């Protein structure tokens, strides 16, 4: 039986359902702008990163809080004579999660074409092939074509068309707090940023907040750099997902982040060593307000925070995350409590970030 959704669940379903791989975030950006325009002035940079400006009692400090709007997906790379679609990845994919999964191709005219990722059948694999990770080059999308180039003639698919996983938002578990959907990486970060801005309505925060989403994070943190040039923040906080450790045989099961135990505050990742005083301030804010949190450490992998920190003359930056299972696949699973608590934490962080606090944080 489907579990009842509240207003926030419906918001999360809407934002994850949107079609938006790297480089094709326009629908997501329009959704963000439409939702935030009633309580924020909207601004966009030249690549399409989109933010609501929530002005408090002072123009400064300027605080940037953002997730990235893009999801991992694909682009049509070629079409065989029989109408099978060859694809290039947009973002990092592990080949073994792809065969027999559904995808949607969006044509130039906006038509959505459904298909299935196909590959060589297990029965025809040689012994050494069975031990290897499947390569995307050996896969294709089957849209049901039955004659030469029917993909082009009738469906309207062409090289360059974007492709995303086909998946639906579902609430799991006895309490319905485990949320499963596509594109948690990283629509959940965008959703949190939007909710923080909305939570500040009617509050006298001593700064100006820019909250929303960047573009093209999955293909090299591209929108993060242009966003920082556009916003010129004094402080930047990236919101993303991180690897959940509450899985069988997870190597960091004893100390890694677990679903439902609080949002993750990152002490390092492959792209960022956070400003230590900003890190301490966020941790102190969580403890002061009795908001549960976890500390995260990733040796590999990066976030927009790494690009924020290196823009212009340098920006004190930090990454906060939601522990999520099965990222960079068709479905991810996260916990609603972690999302709610990250919104609370970042709202309190913004409320306390005045000019004096900024001076204490800056090198």
For this entry, give a set of tags.
eight-stranded mixed beta sheet, alpha+beta, 2 domains, Elongation Factor Tu (Ef-tu), domain 3, Aminopeptidase, 363 residues, 17 strands, 10 helices
Q: Could you characterize the architecture of this molecule?
A:
The chain is α+β, with helices and mostly antiparallel strands and 363 residues long. The chain folds into two domains: 7-71 and 182-361, Aminopeptidase, CATH 3.40.630.10; 73-165, Peptidase M42, domain 2 (Elongation Factor Tu (Ef-tu), domain 3, Beta Barrel). 28% of the residues lie in helices and 26% in strands. The protein is built from ten helices and 17 strands. The chain has an eight-stranded mixed β-sheet with strand order 1-2-12-3-13-16-14-15, with helices on both faces. A six-stranded antiparallel β-sheet has the order 5-4-9-6-7-8. The chain has a three-stranded antiparallel β-sheet with strand order 10-11-17. Strand 4 and strand 5 (85-90) form a beta hairpin. Helix 1 (7-17) crosses helix 5, helix 6 packs across helix 8 and helix 7 (276-288) crosses helix 9. The protein is globular and about 70 Å long. The termini are far apart. The relative contact order is 0.18.
Please state the overall shape, judged from the principal axes of the Cα atoms.
globular
CATH level 1 class label of the largest domain: Alpha Beta
Beta-strand portion reads: 25-35%
Which class of secondary structure composition applies to the elements? alpha+beta
Low-confidence stretches: none
CATH homologous group name of the largest domain: Zn peptidases
Give the domain tally.
2
Specify the biggest β-sheet: 8 strands, mixed
Spatial ordering of strands, largest sheet: 1-2-12-3-13-16-14-15
Helix content: 25-40%
């Amino acid at each position: 039986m489907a579990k009842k959704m509240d207003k926030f669940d419906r918001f999360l379903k809407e934002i994850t359902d949107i079609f938006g791989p790297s480089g094709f975030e326009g629908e997501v950006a329009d959704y963000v702008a439409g939702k935030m325009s009633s309580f924020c002035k909207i601004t966009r940079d030249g690549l399409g990163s989109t933010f609501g400006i929530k002005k408090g009692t002072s123009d400064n400090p300027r605080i940037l809080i953002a997730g990235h709007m893009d999801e991992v997906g694909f682009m049509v790379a070629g079409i065989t004579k029989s109408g099978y679609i060859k694809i290039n990845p947009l973002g990092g994919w592990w080949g073994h999660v792809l065969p027999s999964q559904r995808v949607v191709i969006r044509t130039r005219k906006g038509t959505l074409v459904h298909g299935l990722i196909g590959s060589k059948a297990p029965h025809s694999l040689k012994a050494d092939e069975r031990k290897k990770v499947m390569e995307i080059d050996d896969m294709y999308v089957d849209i049901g074509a039955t004659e030469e180039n029917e993909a082009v003639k009738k469906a309207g698919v062409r090289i360059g068309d974007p492709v995303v996983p086909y998946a639906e938002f579902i609430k799991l578990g006895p309490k319905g707090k485990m949320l499963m959907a596509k594109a948690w990486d990283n629509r959940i970060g965008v959703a949190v940023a939007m909710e923080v801005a909305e939570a500040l309505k009617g509050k006298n925060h001593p700064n100006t907040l820019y909250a929303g989403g960047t573009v093209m994070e999955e293909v090299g943190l591209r929108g993060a750099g242009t966003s920082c040039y556009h916003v010129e923040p004094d402080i930047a906080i990236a919101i993303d997902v991180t690897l959940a450790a509450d899985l069988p045989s997870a190597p960091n099961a004893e100390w890694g982040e677990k679903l439902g135990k609080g949002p993750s505050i990152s002490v390092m990742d492959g792209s960022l060593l956070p400003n230590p005083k900003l890190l301490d301030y966020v941790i102190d804010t969580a403890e002061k307000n009795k908001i549960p949190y976890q500390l995260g450490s990733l040796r590999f992998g990066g976030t927009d925070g790494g690009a924020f920190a290196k823009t212009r003359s340098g920006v004190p930056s930090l990454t906060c995350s939601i522990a999520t299972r099965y990222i960079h696949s068709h479905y991810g699973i996260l916990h609603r409590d972690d999302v709610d608590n990250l919104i609370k934490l970042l709202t309190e962080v913004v409320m306390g970030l005045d000019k004096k606090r900024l001076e204490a944080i800056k090198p």
